[in-house]
């Protein structure tokens, strides 16, 4: 085999794909391009370079060595961006801690990831104080503070980030690394069991960046990211690298705006003041922004938003389109770096009405280049691309976690048969557009037929009196399982189980959904349990309402 | 070290960067998108997929095995595009023969590359007939013909391409390969010695494609390639993969138009008829197209052209801009896959006059992502980015030939010190724009000072009576070397050596160029010798006028 490979003369440089090389693009050396953090920091790209070098010097002088893990608890900030580069570039692993987990879960991930250093925003000191006595592995704590550095007797901080940076050397000779060196790690907020650690290499992050950049770049008018855009993340940087877009924005030399904690008012103010044109968020935040009083008097047109993390409903999509926003779905998960598909529209599709466009924009979309995504049966045979054959979504691409950290069994389950199993069920149409119909473990089997809880949720959500809904499967002697709809009614509206049943039956009668749905039972509730990232927590709901 | 790398669970798929994976993008499965060859073929992307599979079946059934070499002699065609994919995808090596070389040189490259199969367009049979008796290694000949298949007794063809394709199986299970498998090879048309073979792996071609796609994609209004563009190559496919753009165009699902042999009239007709909006060519072809009578009555506006292979002159650039074309320079060479830099302009620069823009568009431009290009002194120290410090251009990127085929000495010279030496001399400005000032071997040393022959050629070309000019160094007892300008005057114009000297002196007097240039001697000639790719052949000129 080896004589088939390209010969390399001894002096030739065999170029590895490293995060440091993403900074080689000349636009990354632009002193006039801004990086903004709320109203607290306004720097440029030359400063970014220098601050990345200073952060590397700081960490090294605190004893951080290749292979060690540096953990961060912060909201979205210029500091986080600097650490996205500096930590992997010295050969260490960046652990982006999900600050929305419970203190016990955070403790678990700090311990499991074997963090050596922890940078923590002062805002999270109350959490840290609850668990610090039980943290064994962290050697060094660094305080992050937006205000004057605090005195905190309970944690022996090596110093405050800005102060340490000011003292650190402004240049750093970043080493060459094996491109398969681990660069980042973080924990999935699965709905079952303890969080699981995923991890990504330098090569994987470079390739994810390049592929997403080509997908967004080559689009002409909609769903595009070009060099005149202004970027503001609205998916946390601790959550799957903020979908990888901070790396792209940096490589493109875009103006970047970091909003700290996500408060709808702050987000809208920053959008207006700094001219953000490209963001990404979960439907909940989009909903909150659209409902905020500021939104009504603002010009939101041309704001491009990738929506992901949960299904975008047609209603919300149409509402956003009416406001002039360019919303479109992205699909992926913690295990996949994350982006696998984007629902960009063709020029012909852009001629359609908002409602018709929403049908496409709410689909999961087309795969990125190099993504080998298949909808398969139980034997991994690909199903027809006919828009109706539903199957499990499995995938190969250059940027998938190669296992779960220190969990051989779950790793093998994830990769059984050589494909990563997303756990999602989907159909694919002739043009290749994917539409997720369910989580495989969420499917409800009624009278021997699959009923999609997502589809049923979508139907019930269309009822004008329904604020929120979740559907789970309830064991039934006669039918095997029956769907149980947990419904939060809108305030001061009257609604009965009969209204819902009648509403659902109309869809079944029209044949747009299998007739098993009429077996739905309804329970009115005050609220629906969510996971730390805002997804419906079906596990908790099952315990609560079926247990 | 290995514990720093990402762990891989046994079942995980370690995704290689392979040419076959560039076809995974769903837009590559579009039955409505066209691939056109002159007025002789009009197919779509589904047919491309099938024809690639058929070509693979055909080659395999003719006995082609991984590691063997398949050579092609054809003009730009849909067939060549199919072979760009099919040959590497079966693990074989695609040798793109430069049909502009002399028959003896072609024989040398067929022999040196150890070609096993040769596909040859009927147009080149006269060349083949001259050398076939001396070809030892080729086992199988395949005829390519735009007309009815010919009977040719002198070459024992296995068949004609279309006929063999029709008989071959329409599906092929393309194997996974090591990403460092050799995919392509071809020969540099250097001006010294015999042609040298360069070679590129699957990984290198995928990464070159992705990087060029991000550079062209993320541009907003000028110098961009988006999904609504129509591509027509005007740099031969045998010349450094037509700059890699056929791979990009395919991955983007663009309409593609292949023009066969480059005749200005055909090119302009195809541009108009098929709506081409993106091309690339050498200055000579741009010049020929602009001067063609068709051009005057055509709308050339919005036609994006990367110009490379030779320096774009300011005059030609301004002329193209006036015609509404978006011309900009690309830089690279056979050894570099080829693209290293592109001279895209910022929105502010696009506000400048044509003449001012031309200054930037004729520069060599900014590097692509992941390209580590340096202007260095003899000790490989980087020179200041001040727009005046001239030095050697050395480079690292993920897509550089790792040596010359079977030439250890030249390979080590190319890569001395771990950087690929381009042999070019350049300056770089504060924004990172590179400007090639000379070939290092072309510099003329006058009275101890370097004189750039390119600069002097540029000055003399500005004289209204000069049609073409080449400058070489002539040994001189007093000055060491003096520039000798070989000048082709415009027809029916009177011009003397004194006119040229006076013209040159004006530039020296203004201080825009070192005063040594006034020592230029002038010789009026009828034509200037060119290499097979249209560059000035300084070696031949030196032999002719100094020998």
UniProtKB/TrEMBL annotation, chains A, B:
Keywords: Fatty acid metabolism, Ligase, Lipid metabolism. Residues 30-405 form the AMP-dependent synthetase/ligase domain. One of its GO terms (molecular function) is ligase activity. Pfam families: AMP-binding (PF00501), AMP-binding_C (PF13193). It comes from the Bacteria. CDD domains: ttLC_FACS_AlkK_like. This is Fatty acid--CoA ligase. It comes from Geomonas anaerohicana.
């Amino acid at each position: 085999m080896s004589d088939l490979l390209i010969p390399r003369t001894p002096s030739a440089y065999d170029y590895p794909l490293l995060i440091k090389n993403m900074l080689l693009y000349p636009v990354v050396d632009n002193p006039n391009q801004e990086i903004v953090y709320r109203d607290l920091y306004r720097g440029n790209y030359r400063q970014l370079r220098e601050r990345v070098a200073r952060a590397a010097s700081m960490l090294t002088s605190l004893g951080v060595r290749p292979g060690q893990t540096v953990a961060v608890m912060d909201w979205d900030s210029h500091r986080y961006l600097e650490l996205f580069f500096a930590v992997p570039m010295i050969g260490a692993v960046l652990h982006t801690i999900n600050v929305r987990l419970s203190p016990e879960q955070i403790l678990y991930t700090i311990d499991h990831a074997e963090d050596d250093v922890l940078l923590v925003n002062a805002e999270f000191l109350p959490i840290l104080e609850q668990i610090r006595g039980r943290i064994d592995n962290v050697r060094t704590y660094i305080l992050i503070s937006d205000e004057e550095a605090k005195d905190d007797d309970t944690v022996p901080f090596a110093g405050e980030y800005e102060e340490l940076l000011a003292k650190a050397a402004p240049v750093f000779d970043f080493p060459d690394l094996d491109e398969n060196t681990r660069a980042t790690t973080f924990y999935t907020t699965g709905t079952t069991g303890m969080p699981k650690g995923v991890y990504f290499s330098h090569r994987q992050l470079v390739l994810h960046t390049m592929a997403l950049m080509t997908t967004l770049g080559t689009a002409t008018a909609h769903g595009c990211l070009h060099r005149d855009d202004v970027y503001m993340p609205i998916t946390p940087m601790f959550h799957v690298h903020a979908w990888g877009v901070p790396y792209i924005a940096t490589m493109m030399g875009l103006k970047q705006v970091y909003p700290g904690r996500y408060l709808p008012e702050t987000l809208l103010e920053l959008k207006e003041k700094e001219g953000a044109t490209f963001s990404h968020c979960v439907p909940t935040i989009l909903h909150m922004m659209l409902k905020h009083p500021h939104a009504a008097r603002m010009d939101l047109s041309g704001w491009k938003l990738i929506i992901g993390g949960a299904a975008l409903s047609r209603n919300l999509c149409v509402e956003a389109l009416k406001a002039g926003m360019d919303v479109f779905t992205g699909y992926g998960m913690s295990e996949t770096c994350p982006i696998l598909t984007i629902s960009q529209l063709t020029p012909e599709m852009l001629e359609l009405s908002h409602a018709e466009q929403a049908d496409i924009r709410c689909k999961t979309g087309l795969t990125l280049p190099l993504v080998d995504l298949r909808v398969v049966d139980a034997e991994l045979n690909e199903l027809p691309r006919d828009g109706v054959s539903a199957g499990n979504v499995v995938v190969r691409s250059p940027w998938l976690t190669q296992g779960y950290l220190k969990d051989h069994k779950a790793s093998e389950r994830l990769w059984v048969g050589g494909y990563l199993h997303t756990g999602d069920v989907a159909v694919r149409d002739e043009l290749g557009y994917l539409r997720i119909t369910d989580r495989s473990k969420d499917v409800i089997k009624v009278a021997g037929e699959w009923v999609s809880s997502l589809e049923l949720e979508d139907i019930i959500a269309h009822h004008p009196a329904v604020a929120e809904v979740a559907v789970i499967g309830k064991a039934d002697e006669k039918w095997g399982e029956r769907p149980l709809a947990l419904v939060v009614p809108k305030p001061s509206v009257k609604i009965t189980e009969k209204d819902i049943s009648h509403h659902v039956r109309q869809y079944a009668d029209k044949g747009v959904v299998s007739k098993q749905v009429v077996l739905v039972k309804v329970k009115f509730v005050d609220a629906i349990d969510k996971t730390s990232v805002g997804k419906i927590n079906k596990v908790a709901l099952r315990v609560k309402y079926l247990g």
